[in-house]
Amino acid sequence: MEQDTPVQSMNGAAVSASKSTTWLGRQGAAAFDLRSDTQTTPTLEMLRAIEVTTLDDDVYHEDRTTINLEDHIAALTGKEAALFVVSGSMGNQLALRSLLTQPPHGVLCDHRSHVNRYEAGGVASLSGAMVEAVVPKNGVHLTLEDVKENVCLGDDVHVCPTKVISLENTLAGMIMPLDEVKRISAFARENNIKMHLDGARLWEVAASGGGSLDSFAACFDTVNLCFSKGLGAPIGSIIVGSKDVIKHARWMRKAIGGGLRQSGVVTAAARVGVDTTFGKGPNGEGGLLKTSHAMAKRVEKIWTDLGGKMLYPVHTNMLWLDLESMNCSGSRLNALGAEQGLKLSGNRIITHYQVSEEAIQRLTNVFQKVAEEKTNGHDLKRKGDDMESGIYKK
Ligand SMILES: *Cc1c(COP(=O)(O)O)cnc(C)c1O
Questions:
Q1: Which of 20, 26, 51, 94 has the most Cβ atoms closer than 10 angstroms to its Cβ?
Q2: What's the CA-to-centroid distance between 297 and ligand 1, angstroms?
């Protein structure tokens, strides 16, 4: 006879799960994986929601679970409509494709932004747009002054006119303040430029008290939000905007093979991620994200108490270690992490609600080892060592 196995739910309470579920709680791999919040695994509540989800066709626009999720996120962000997509890259690309019409057109963004660096050049191949990648003067986020210096206005035949300003929040875990977003948005609107927000981690901004989802969304024509990072859903993102733009995005989603049939199996889990991990209110009230921000701050303190420096301030759940300040390299850090059973990705560390207390203990051991090696004069900057040793670069 099958026995029920007690496991931990996401909020730490013991729940009974039959052995037939793949849920592993904090014993799962994500507990020791600090490479990315994409490594979070679906919670027991998500698996339960999948069991009882509707199984209708979303290309025919008949699946209630999916439609309810889209309506709910549209309402949360104060937009008319929403469209579920399989990934954040697909969301960004469809939103940009829907805001742009035809060349010549340019998309202005931070040089470090996901749409510029990590979407396989989709802005060029799918929208035929030129990316105007800007280095922010303050090193943290773009300002209106950065935008004004780089934007292309006017209709001189030599130039590629900026048609969309694409911002990202958080970017590298850092918050772009709402006031700055408002300034840029007002300038864009005066100049007939559309605004897109890659808000893959906008949930983290809201949970940290940086401003509600709808107050940011009001500054943009389209916003992309991810369910499969800190929220813990297995798959999916969503874009929000006006009815017209979302209608066009739905059409383009079909064109690139993103029309889903029984999408309830993924949207049911995404909904649990919003309600439980993010929390019910517009600022993540009652959710779990704040805890991972506090954890990131603790990790920062452990590192800096040992003499390490940071490359960027820690605003939410992401840390950028200055490994050179400790004579360490990304590959050395990864190796020390592996000895402790931790998965690390060079100098970028991400906390999420599944990271265990035990993982922080082990990470402390890793940091102490790094400090010891520095004291002992090891030169870890060996030839060929990758200083960052992750996909994502500062
Ligand atoms: C993760 C992420 C995305 C989307 O990534 P996918 O892997 O395509 O879901 C988009 N923008 C940012 C800033 C991200 O961190």
A1: 94
A2: 23
